[in-house]
Amino acid sequence: KAGVTQTPRYLIKTRGQQVTLSCSPISGHRSVSWYQQTPGQGLQFLFEYFSETQRNKGNFPGRFSGRQFSNSRSEMNVSTLELGDSALYLCASSLVASGYNEQFFGPGTRLTVL
Amino acid sequence: KQEVTQIPAALSVPEGENLVLNCSFTDSAIYNLQWFRQDPGKGLTSLLLIQSSQREQTSGRLNASLDKSSGRSTLYIAASQPGDSATYLCAALGGSNYKLTFGKGTLLTVNP
């Protein structure tokens, strides 16, 4: 069974641009969560989607948004990029949005904002 | 607001040593606690998941325990190997929302 895939793996953008990252969960998984990882802040929760609905949102500005499609694939978008948005963005999938289910992480997208 | 702390931040041990990594959390209302491994520049690999009703989980040389009442979890690694060198992260899945709160990790180096 294929794992969680994220595309692209690396991305370089300049300030003010926008970016879209994609996450394909493990087949059959319906919950997708996004996290931002930086050296200073560590791993921080962005948002979580289940059955195309955003169920939880972390403490990030409105420039960060996401969506989930009917096939459970998810995208996150960051508009008006800032230097501080440079980070490793990780998505995780689980079977259902339940505490009994393990979350499996993808390899991440490394975003560099110049 | 859940806060997760990991001690120590870094650990260097000789090969073959048994070691313990510590994780503490402030809100005991959790669904589960997961331990992950992260190699440099890579994503997270799940090692062990302990449900809130469980006390411990074992996988090979790894054993994780959970004490909800004291807000603590430990990851025990037996007979460490150089291949165990990585950053180990613990994360608590919140009881009020479906969100993993991570510690900052312990950077483990196992020297041959």
Can you tag this structure with a few keywords?
heterodimer, A: 114 residues, mainly beta, seven-stranded mixed sheet, 0% helix, B: 112 residues, six-stranded mixed sheet, five-stranded antiparallel sheet, 11 strands, globular
Structure description:
The complex is a heterodimer of chains A (114) and B (112). Chain A has strands spanning 5-7, 10-13, 19-24, 31-38, 42-50, 53-57, 64-68, 74-78, 87-94, 104-105, 109-113. Chain A is mostly beta strands and 114 residues long. In chain A, strands 2, 4, 5, 6, 9, 10 and 11 form a seven-stranded mixed beta sheet that branches. In chain A, strands 1-3-8-7 form a four-stranded antiparallel beta sheet, with no helix packed on it. The mean pLDDT of chain A is 93. With 112 residues, chain B is mostly beta strands. Chain B starts with a strand and ends with a strand. The chains are: A mainly beta (114), B mainly beta (112). Chains A and B meet through strand 4, strand 5, strand 9 and strand 10 of A and strand 4, strand 5, strand 9 and strand 10 of B.
Q: How would you classify the helix and strand content of chain A by structural class?
A: mainly beta
Shape of chain B, please? globular
DSSP helical segment count of chain B: 0
Q: Shape of chain A from CA axes? A: globular
Strand content of chain B: over 45%
Biggest sheet architecture of chain A: 7 strands, mixed
β-strand amount of chain A: over 45%
The largest chain-to-chain contact, stated as pair and per-chain residue counts, equals: A-B, 28 and 27 residues
Q: Uncertain segments of chain A of ≥5 residues (pLDDT<50)?
A: none
Query: What quaternary form is this?
Result: heterodimer
Q: Give the SSE order of chain A as H and E letters.
A: EEEEEEEEEEE
Mean pLDDT of chain B: 93
Spatial separation of the terminal alpha carbons of chain A: 37 Å
Radius of gyration from the alpha-carbon trace of chain B, in angstroms: 13 Å
Q: Terminal Cα separation of chain B, in Å? A: 41 Å
Number of strands of chain A: 11
Number of strands of chain B: 11
Mean pLDDT of chain A: 93
Total count of helical runs of at least 4 residues of chain A:
0
The helix/strand class of chain B is: mainly beta
Question: In sequence order, what are the helices and strands of chain B, one letter per element?
Answer: EEEEEEEEEEE
